[in-house]
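**User:** I keep going back and forth on a fold encoding question. It is easy to fool oneself when nobody else works the same problem. Could you pick a protein and write out its sequence and tokenised fold? Could you put it straight underneath, so I can go through it closely?

**Assistant:**
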Amino acid sequence: MVGKDNLRAEDLNLCFEKLMMLGGNGIQKGGVKMEGGIITEWKDIPTELLLQIVSLVDDKTVIMASGVCRGWRDAICLGLTHLSFSWCSKNMNNLVLSLAPKFTKLQNLILRQDKPQLEDHAVETIANCCHDLQVLDLSKSFKLSDSSLYSLAHGCPNLSKLNISGCSAFSDSALAYLASFCHKLKVLNLCGCVKAASDRALQAIGCYCSQLQSLNLGWCDNVSDVGVMSLAYGCPDLRTLDLCGCVRITDDSVIALANRCLHLRSLGLYYCQNITDRAMYSLAYSRVKKTSMWEPVNEIKDEDGLRTLNISQCTALTPPAVQAVCDSFPSLHTCSGRHSLIMSGCLNLMSVHCACAFHAHRTTSNVAHPAH
């Protein structure tokens, strides 16, 4: 338990002196001059300055400071909106149970773990106390079950960013339930959630989470075209989608994304070996179609459209189809240091090059063979 006994008065005074040095010109001998008087020791710090100070220190120090006295506790608990427990390698569960009822104004909470500690009752406490929560990271929480998602659905309807990557115990019914309550989700990481990320869950996300912009479905091998097409039709503002290892998807998924998600900037298709040239030409054509439908060719910006495409291990693709995509999206690069068109394991695609490579080759040729 973190409390004032963990901090000695001399430690606080030393910290106070160091923190006050950040004030620069405001420092005078004997303290820091402020309107209404001079601060000479840590007990004199007003709430506004205290909150500024805690914004400069690490989260462990913030938690320790909240246990110094009632005034500091109230000020920090009511004023703090961002907090991370990732530094806690032991007893994270007990710490969350103890502090969640106090930090009721949290909007951003990071509970990422190297080894599983968090349990359902801790998440339930968060859901019951932190109703303003918008960003939550529960990655690698292997001990959590569906009850955690049900609690979040009811207690944290304002979630906009949720990371549950590696939470392999969650079911698709619990994820679908969460989606039906959390309509403001914009960023969702489901990497490795093999049970939760099913077509059923993706249909619910497509139905309820129309604001979704980023989704990671890495290695969710139960996902098929049915789920991805539901996303494409229900989440038109989708900008980043990682489908690496989703071995069941076919060209139909990519075609739906190309036709419906016109703001798509990053697409990961690593090891999706059912993807063929048909999918690549649909992506290239979506650029042409968008240009002809919405704006003049001379107003299209390089940063519009795909900026990252991973087709590593997609061995069915041929150079002409991939080159068509590369030519359609100037932000896709194969040149050294700018690899945003990733083609590892596709030896047959070595002839594909971005515009930069062609310009570099032309420049080299001109230097090597000057005009007479």
